[in-house]
Design a protein that fits this description.
alpha+beta, elongated
Length: 162
């Protein structure tokens, strides 16, 4: 149980030697404990599993729960990606080429990250060789906004600020 607790608390892959040092026991004892844990987790109905990758062991959530993780764990976005997302959200829909022009070439990476996270979507622009970018329903759910204010031109001259 000590090895299981260490795997849980460290929350990162550990070698047999690292586990033994943290447990204060011999590597052979840790190896036997790991075999027992691997067998135990393989035969019980649980959301967790012990995984071995490149001689490192970790306790992790089974891959079947990744969608749940994405819906519950906050998205970590860097400042650049946040600014790119804010631009796309503010504009409602915007050509990718325009985002690159306004945000610089690093916006390509931001856009890919935002697409992967499901916060934006893109479609081919029939008027140019670029894509049209816009926020998704996931964006609205994550940031808990029902509707974003429209830009000045979309309000028909209404000069209210939001």
């Amino acid at each position: 149980m000590r090895v299981e607790a260490i795997l849980y608390l460290k929350a990162q892959p550990l070698t047999l030697a690292e586990l033994a040092a943290l447990a204060g026991t011999a590597p052979e004892t840790v190896e036997l404990a790991l075999i027992e844990l691997l067998n135990d987790y393989a035969h019980r109905q649980t959301a967790l599993e012990i995984v071995q990758i490149d001689n490192r062991y970790s306790l992790q959530l089974k891959s079947a729960f990744q969608e749940l993780v994405q819906s519950l764990v906050p998205v970590e976005l860097g400042v650049g990606a946040q600014r790119t997302l804010a631009l796309i959200a503010f504009r409602g829909s915007i050509r990718q080429s325009e985002v690159i022009e306004l945000r610089g070439s690093s916006a390509y990476q931001h856009i890919q990250e935002l697409l992967t996270l499901g916060l934006i979507q893109r479609r081919r622009d029939s008027q140019s060789r670029s894509y049209i970018l816009q926020v998704t329903e996931r964006f609205h759910q994550y940031f808990q906004v029902d509707q974003l204010p429209t830009t000045e031109g979309d309000r028909g001259g209404d000069s209210r600020t939001h």
